[in-house]
């Protein structure tokens, strides 16, 4: 019982440290030492970098797939790097994702896709399948099973994918656990990193705008496109915020459009009046 209690306390500590990674980065920038458990752990944002599409993984059905096979034309992809036997953080992160997904009108497999990759090369396709079942049942959206894939893989492929997106993690040998950040990577349909989202609770609007942004305007309503014109992603705030310059540009464009419409109507009325006078 004591061993179990110590293990739980250790898992809580590691998960808490991972959630505090942004603050730890600030400490590092101030030349203050990081907690030992966080050394080598974090995210190096590589916006625009492309993931290697020829990497091979095994999906939850036991079938081998390349990363490139999981991308669909016009559909952005949400990538999560977790592991299925994670005692706490991964569960919190994926539960938070499900909560945000419930608020979206879009569904995995239709407007976008999700790929969850285990960073533990010892995990199996059977374990991936059991985790997929748990999260799909929690999500409760019919048809989502085709758009949310759970993968396992070999160490070289896992490491290559993590390196491509700047996801740094470590293994705690004493506790037999991985230490990693809670991060989501939004990828374009071509496999380029478009946005990083952090934390275990995702803001649904932030997720929606990030997916719309990654789709290069193919996904989302006119209102979403207008929001993307006037907002930009603030990494420190973890959400999209008003961009003053873009807002003024959008306001100027709307003013010019309104003036053009008014002048067009005025010209049309004047022309009709001139025709009547003849």
Entry summary:
By secondary structure, the protein is an alpha+beta fold. The chain has one domain (2-202): Glutaredoxin (3-Layer(aba) Sandwich), CATH 3.40.30.
Overview features:
7-stranded mixed sheet; 43% helix; Glutaredoxin; 278 residues; alpha+beta; single chain; 8 helices
The total of beta strands comes to 13
Strand content: 15-25%
* Rg for CA atoms: 23 Å
Order of helices and strands: HHEEEEHEHEHEEEEEHHEEH
CATH architecture: 3-Layer(aba) Sandwich
Number of helices: 8
- What is the SS-derived class? alpha+beta
Q: What is the third-level CATH name, the topology?
A: Glutaredoxin
Say what oligomer this is: single chain
Largest beta sheet: strand ordering:
3-2-6-5-4-10-11
What global shape is seen?
globular
- Count of structural domains: 1
The major β-sheet equals:
7 strands, mixed
**What is the end-to-end distance?**
101 Å
| CATH level-4 homologous superfamily | Glutaredoxin
Overall pLDDT confidence: 80
Task: Just give the CATH class.
Answer: Alpha Beta
In percent, how helical is the residue content? 40-55%
């Amino acid at each position: 019982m004591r061993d179990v209690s110590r293990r739980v306390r250790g898992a809580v500590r590691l998960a808490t440290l991972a959630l505090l990674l942004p603050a730890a980065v600030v400490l590092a920038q101030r030349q203050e030492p990081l907690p030992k458990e966080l050394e080598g752990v974090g995210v190096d944002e590589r916006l625009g970098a492309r993931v290697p599409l020829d990497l091979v993984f095994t999906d939850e059905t036991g079938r081998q797939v390349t990363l490139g096979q999981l991308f669909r034309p016009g559909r952005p992809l949400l990538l999560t790097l977790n592991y299925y036997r994670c005692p706490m953080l991964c569960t919190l992160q994926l539960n938070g994702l499900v909560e945000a997904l419930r608020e979206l009108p879009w569904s995995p497999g239709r407007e976008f896709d999700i790929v969850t990759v285990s960073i533990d090369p010892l995990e199996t396709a059977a374990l991936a399948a059991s985790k997929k079942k748990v999260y799909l049942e929690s999500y409760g959206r019919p048809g989502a099973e085709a758009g949310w894939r759970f993968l396992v893989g070999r160490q070289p492929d896992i490491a290559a994918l993590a390196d491509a997106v700047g996801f740094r993690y470590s293994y705690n040998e004493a506790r037999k656990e991985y230490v990693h950040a809670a991060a989501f990577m939004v990828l374009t349909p071509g496999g380029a990193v478009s946005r990083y989202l952090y934390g275990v609770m995702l803001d649904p609007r932030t997720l929606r705008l990030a997916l719309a942004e990654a789709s290069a305007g193919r996904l989302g309503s006119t209102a979403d496109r207008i929001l993307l014109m006037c907002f930009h992603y603030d990494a420190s705030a973890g959400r999209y915020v008003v961009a003053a310059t873009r807002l003024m540009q959008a306001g100027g464009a709307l003013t010019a459009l309104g003036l053009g419409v008014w002048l067009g109507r005025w010209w049309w009325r004047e022309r009709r009046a001139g025709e009547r006078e003849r």
